[in-house]
């Protein structure tokens, strides 16, 4: 540590703990000094400081030392008293207030930066008025009776040479009745050093009279007399550039150059006077008194015997009841004399002598419970330790003890504790213990709020100066200080401390304390009338989503009140309420691409391009993207901008979010735009006009304009809306250019609660990306908000009605497409393409006014046509060539809708059209339409087909229908098979299958049908086939009265939708040629109780395509012959003839071998044969029922249960045998059949199962060189009954 005397505390002690001289003067003395604007004490004060003193001093020891610096403190007799507490507080308040007024300019500057604060030294960081305030605070405890360093050491008696009887005036001035209380109440020895001074004003005459009076004074008062001549300037008032009174006077003295009657000779005379007074009178007097007191103390208190005596005597005083302020000590008591000895030694820089006496007296005060005096000696011990630079721990301990006893035990000693704390703080700061010093500051300012504010602010700077800096504590103590400043109405100081604290919290996540600081700074600025600054800080706390609802309401309410007080509308850039999601900004404009709805504009561009690829004219054979395509269609002068059309709105979707829990009211929300109108060559500079915000700076004020003015180059939409707490909404704003030129969308503006205009400029600067960045699909790109406006063009508007938003699967409806063109120019060459032809199909023009569903009913007198019109295509629909749209007459065209499958479906329709009779940069346009609909499950229909064992080319069909809706009921109307070769019929009456007229929600239904293949297959004889004229067959699934007529499945739109379904379902059944299609038509009912068809009528069609009719074997056969025979066995055995028809359903040549076995050796033959594939299967039997054999109809191979075992005779001789050939081999061409004769010999009556035969089949390759597949089938059960004839 540096020399203690050169530290701030050392310098303070050299100024404050120095000898005091009491001044007694006559009024004429003051009159002579006032000619110079100074009092007598003020005139002498600059000359009481001696920095180059060099005076030898000898106190109690024999070894002298030299004083290099010395100082006297001069006070009038009236000032030698303890200051009034209330007056001192008011004085301190004035000091703080005046300091705040001087710092007013800093309050309007930019916020301080923490980096600047950290780079400053202690002297630069601390406000200058802190030091002055601390001194004033120390002076509040001056002239205490328990401390001798404030007691006058000498008395300077001053009389003017103009006074009458000057000698008597000297005597009268030191009258004991007029002396201060310290000299009269016994606190100090009234016999102090007296020095007599005669003042002569040279402006009043020569000094001869003064010299005579001086001689008389010396004869009366010995040699302690001096003469001082002042105002010696012969030329009148003299101006002195160097004013020596500036540094040693109160702040009420002028700081400008001094104008007075004092010349250089006067200055030197005053200086010599005070130096002689100090070196020849004050210091020798104090030396002498120290030596005398030291001898007395040594004789009475030092030594072991005296210490024991003192302790014994002190012990006897324990029973004495002390006064609340402690025992009273007079100046003659040994305790007071020891304290005087210590203080005198301290003032003469003999710190060791002072410390020894403080130690000696400290014990006595503690035993006497004189706590204030005890604390005072502990305080001086700590200072002595510091000045000796010894035992830091002891010094801090003494200061801590003194501070504690001042506060806890000594009554009315708060000011003494404050002074002790300030000296303690300086002691710690001198040793760079800033953190500990801050703690002491915090303890010092515990009582008085205003003083506490100053102490907390000083504590904050200690944390800043710590190593490392404790920034959080620095900011927090500044906030505490500012809060106390505000409570004491020191608003400017409160703002200053909060501004400094903001430098700590700026850029951090401490959102609550940042809100607190900004909010209160804003409030306090408003109290000072600085509304612009108040608003700027209140804006920082508006988007306080982390705060409670109550705090949010408070912040917003106070902000609006401040704005109202200004009496004007504030315009704020990037106003935080509401929040604007710039990345979600979406711009919708129409060039050659137009949109029927906002939903259509949100669809990805590549989807539209793929849909329009066949309609848009090709610019080259190579495939190009839409950017290249547009560049070829749009002239070069528009390439750097988007293109829009005059009179057509550019729409911008902006997402507004309310971050608060309270509602916000927004009004006059609109875009900020610029439009430069120009000639055909797009001259950007000449003759251009601009409307809107000039984007030069974010703080630029808005140019107010009438958005509805007809003279404006564009019109803007103006939206008012409110946002609930936490609500997010997307608002669409539009700008409609009226003239050709260049349109720039600059930003958006709005008005919050009718008082504050907020605006936000969009970033339209291009983003330069490297190659790797371009590969990232999610890299944010700036939106191009610059548009080249071309002249007005025709524009189609389209709508489909009544297209439902929700439908059930299979729902079939008749719709109408309506197209309008409001322009005076016509459009031509219309084309249309639909993304999902399964859902939407173009109808015939003549069906526009057809009544639905009557138009789909089957006409008895008219044959159906399975082909649709030539202009209906599943790719591009071409409107008739003569079709034009212009003016008020719309174009209506029929459409058919069918909900093909459940799910959320997006239908996209694009209509291409060309401009008619108009020259424009855009030669064609497209109308893009998009509809979202939800398709719910309705009827789930499935089919199972099995070959009929008793009939060739006949099949049993099982249809399962499940109603998967939650509340709807349906009436099953008809089932149709599609195609010329299929015929379907019922196996049971309709009443037996559909006993209820409705199929309710969650209900299931199973029914069976017979399916016949009506095409004539080729035989082995002719090898030709013929087609039946049937185009399909229908089965009514209800009575004619309840269901109505049948619907024609071979007419549009059913045939068109069925074609789409076949294409869709073809993939899973590819390669299967033996398939059949079914169409189930149903109608919804109003309710289950009253099963009446819904009104308006609805129709549902369910399509099942490519249902396979193939069995497990490509070979099927049928044994035909008698079932019952009568024969007389007494005459002979019975011979019965049969024939077997074999059918090859495959598309290749088949080789079939039939082997018959007798019943006795049946098992032997089967065991030698190839593993037999049963003719019947046990799979897929659920819901199937056996049919009576009397109808000659057998169920299919996978209908019957497992084949029963063959009956065996009890006898050893077989009852029948196959009498024909035991093995027959035939070859069948693809899809052909043949007949083979069979014969059985029966030897006795009975019922016989003629299934003991097998068929071995092989499918041959096309070249006949090998086998593709093979198999073996067991014969079907065939029961023959032979009876004995009569």
TrEMBL record:
Residues 1204-1252 form the TPPC8 C-terminal Ig-like domain. It holds the Pfam family Ig_TPPC8_C. Residues 810-927 form the TPPC8 second Ig-like domain. Gene3D superfamilies: Tetratricopeptide repeat domain (1.25.40.10). GO terms for cellular component: TRAPPIII protein complex. Residues 605-781 form the TPPC8 first Ig-like domain. PANTHER family: TRAFFICKING PROTEIN PARTICLE COMPLEX SUBUNIT 8, TRANSPORT PROTEIN TRAPP. This is Trafficking protein particle complex subunit 8. It comes from Rubus argutus.
């Amino acid at each position: 540590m540096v020399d203690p005397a050169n530290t701030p505390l050392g310098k303070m002690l050299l100024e404050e703990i120095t000898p005091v001289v009491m001044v007694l003067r006559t009024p004429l003395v003051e009159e002579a000094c006032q000619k110079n604007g100074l009092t007598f004490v003020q005139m002498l004060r600059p000359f009481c400081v001696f920095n180059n003193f060099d005076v030898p001093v000898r106190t109690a020891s024999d070894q002298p030392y030299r004083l290099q610096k010395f100082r006297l403190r001069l006070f009038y007799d009236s000032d030698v008293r303890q200051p009034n507490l209330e007056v001192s507080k008011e004085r301190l308040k004035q000091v703080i207030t005046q300091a705040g007024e001087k710092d007013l300019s800093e309050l309007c500057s930019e916020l301080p930066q923490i980096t600047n604060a950290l780079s400053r030294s202690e002297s630069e960081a601390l406000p200058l008025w802190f030091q002055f305030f601390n001194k004033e605070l120390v002076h509040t405890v001056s002239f205490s009776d328990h401390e001798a360093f404030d007691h006058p050491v000498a008395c300077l008696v001053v009389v003017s040479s103009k006074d009458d009887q000057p000698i008597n005036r000297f005597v009268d001035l030191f009258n004991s009745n007029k002396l201060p209380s310290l000299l009269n109440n016994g606190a100090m020895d009234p016999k102090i050093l007296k020095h007599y001074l005669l003042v002569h004003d040279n402006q009043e005459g020569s000094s001869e009279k003064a010299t005579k009076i001086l001689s008389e004074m010396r004869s009366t008062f010995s040699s302690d007399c001096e003469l001082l001549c002042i105002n010696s300037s012969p030329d009148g008032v003299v101006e002195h550039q160097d004013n020596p009174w500036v540094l040693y006077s109160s702040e009420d003295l002028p700081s400008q150059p001094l104008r007075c009657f004092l010349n250089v000779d006067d200055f030197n005379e005053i200086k010599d006077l005070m130096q002689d007074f100090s070196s020849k009178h004050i210091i020798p007097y104090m030396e002498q008194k120290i030596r005398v007191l030291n001898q007395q103390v040594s004789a009475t208190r030092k030594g072991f015997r005296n210490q024991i005596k003192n302790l014994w005597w002190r012990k006897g005083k324990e029973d004495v009841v002390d006064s609340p302020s402690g025992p009273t000590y007079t100046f003659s008591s040994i305790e007071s004399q020891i304290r005087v000895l210590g203080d005198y030694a301290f003032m003469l820089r003999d710190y060791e002598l002072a410390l020894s006496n403080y130690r000696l007296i400290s014990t006595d005060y503690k035993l006497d419970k004189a706590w204030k005096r005890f604390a005072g000696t502990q305080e001086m011990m700590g200072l002595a330790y510091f000045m000796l630079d010894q035992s830091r721990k002891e010094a801090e301990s003494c200061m801590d003890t003194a501070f504690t006893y001042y506060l806890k035990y000594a009554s009315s000693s708060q000011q003494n504790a404050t002074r002790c704390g300030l000296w303690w703080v300086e002691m710690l700061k001198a040793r760079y213990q800033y953190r500990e010093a801050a703690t002491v500051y915090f303890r010092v300012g515990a009582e008085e709020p205003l003083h506490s504010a100053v102490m907390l602010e000083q504590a904050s700077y200690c944390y800043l100066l710590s190593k490392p800096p404790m920034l959080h504590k620095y900011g927090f103590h500044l906030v505490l200080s500012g809060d106390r400043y505000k409570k004491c109405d020191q608003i400017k100081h409160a703002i200053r401390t909060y501004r400094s604290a903001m430098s700590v919290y700026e850029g951090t996540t401490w959102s609550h304390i940042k809100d607190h600081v900004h909010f209160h700074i804003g409030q306090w600025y408003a109290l000072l009338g600085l509304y612009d600054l108040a608003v700027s800080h209140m804006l920082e706390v508006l988007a306080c989503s982390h705060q409670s609802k109550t705090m949010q309401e408070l912040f917003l309410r106070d902000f609006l009140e401040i704005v109202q007080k200004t009496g004007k509308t504030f315009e704020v850039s990037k106003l935080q309420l509401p929040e604007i999601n710039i990345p979600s900004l979406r711009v919708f404009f129409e060039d050659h691409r137009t949109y029927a709805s906002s939903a259509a504009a949100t669809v990805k561009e590549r989807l539209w391009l793929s849909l329009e690829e066949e309609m848009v004219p090709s610019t080259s054979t190579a495939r190009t993207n839409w950017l290249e395509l547009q560049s070829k269609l749009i002239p070069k002068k528009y390439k750097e901008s988007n293109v829009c059309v005059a009179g057509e709105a550019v729409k911008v979707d902006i997402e507004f979010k309310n971050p608060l829990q309270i509602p916000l009211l927004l009004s006059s929300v609109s875009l900020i735009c610029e439009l430069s109108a120009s000639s055909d060559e797009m001259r950007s500079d000449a003759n251009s006009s601009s409307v809107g915000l000039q984007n030069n700076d974010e703080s630029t004020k808005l140019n107010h304009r009438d958005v509805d003015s007809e003279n404006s180059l564009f019109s803007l939409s103006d939206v008012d809306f409110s946002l609930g707490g936490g609500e997010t909404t997307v608002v669409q704003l539009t700008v409609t250019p009226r003239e050709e030129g260049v349109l720039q969308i600059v930003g958006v503006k709005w008005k919050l609660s009718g008082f504050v205009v907020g605006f936000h400029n969009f970033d339209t600067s291009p983003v330069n990306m490297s190659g790797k960045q371009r590969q990232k699909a999610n890299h944010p790109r700036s939106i191009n908000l610059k548009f080249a406006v071309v002249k007005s063009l025709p524009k189609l508007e389209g709508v489909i009605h009544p297209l439902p938003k929700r439908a059930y699967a299979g729902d079939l409806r008749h719709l109408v497409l309506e197209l309008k063109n409001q322009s005076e120019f016509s459009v031509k060459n219309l084309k249309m393409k639909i993304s999902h032809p399964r859902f939407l199909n173009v109808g015939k023009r003549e069906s526009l006014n057809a009544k639905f569903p009557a138009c789909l009913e089957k006409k008895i007198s008219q044959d159906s046509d399975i082909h649709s019109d030539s202009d209906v295509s599943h790719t591009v629909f071409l409107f008739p060539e003569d079709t034009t749209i212009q003016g008020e007459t719309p174009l209506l065209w029929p459409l058919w809708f069918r909900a093909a499958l459940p799910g959320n479906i997006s239908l996209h329709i694009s209509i291409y059209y060309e401009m008619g009779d108009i020259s424009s940069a855009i030669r064609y346009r497209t109308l893009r339409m998009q509809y979202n609909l939800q398709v719910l499950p309705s009827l789930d229909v499935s089919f199972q087909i099995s070959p009929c064992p008793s009939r060739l080319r006949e099949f049993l069909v099982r249809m399962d229908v499940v109603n998967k809706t939650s509340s709807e009921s349906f009436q099953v109307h008809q089932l149709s098979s599609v195609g010329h070769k299929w015929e379907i019929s019922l196996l049971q009456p309709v009443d037996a299958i559909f006993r209820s007229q409705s199929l309710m929600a969650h209900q299931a239904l199973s029914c069976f049908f017979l399916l016949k293949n009506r095409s004539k297959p080729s035989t082995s004889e002719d090898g030709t086939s013929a087609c039946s004229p049937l185009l399909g067959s229908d089965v009514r699934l209800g009575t004619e009265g309840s269901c109505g007529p049948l619907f024609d499945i071979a007419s549009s739109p059913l045939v068109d939708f069925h074609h789409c379904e076949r294409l869709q379902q073809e993939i899973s059944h590819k390669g299967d040629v033996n398939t059949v299609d079914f169409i189930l038509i149903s109608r919804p009912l109003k309710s289950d109780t009253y099963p009446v068809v819904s009104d308006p009528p609805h129709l549902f069609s369910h399509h099942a395509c490519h249902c396979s009719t193939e069995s497990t074997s490509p070979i099927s056969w049928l044994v035909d012959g008698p079932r019952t025979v009568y024969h007389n066995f007494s005459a002979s055995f019975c011979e019965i003839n049969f024939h077997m028809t074999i059918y090859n359903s495959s598309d290749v040549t088949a080789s079939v071998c039939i082997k018959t076995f007798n019943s006795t050796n049946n098992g032997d033959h089967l065991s030698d044969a190839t593993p037999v594939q049963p003719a019947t299967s046990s799979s897929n039997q659920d819901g199937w029922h056996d049919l009576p054999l009397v109808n000659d109809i057998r169920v299919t191979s996978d209908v019957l249960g497992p084949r029963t075992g063959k009956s065996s005779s009890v006898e050893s001789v077989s009852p029948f045998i196959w009498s024909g050939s035991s093995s027959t081999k035939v070859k069948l061409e693809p899809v052909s059949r043949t007949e083979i004769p069979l014969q059985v010999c029966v030897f006795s009556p009975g019922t016989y199962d003629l299934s003991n035969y097998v068929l071995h089949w092989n499918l041959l390759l096309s070249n006949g060189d090998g086998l593709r597949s093979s198999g073996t089938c067991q014969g079907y059960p065939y029961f023959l009954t032979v009876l004995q004839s009569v």
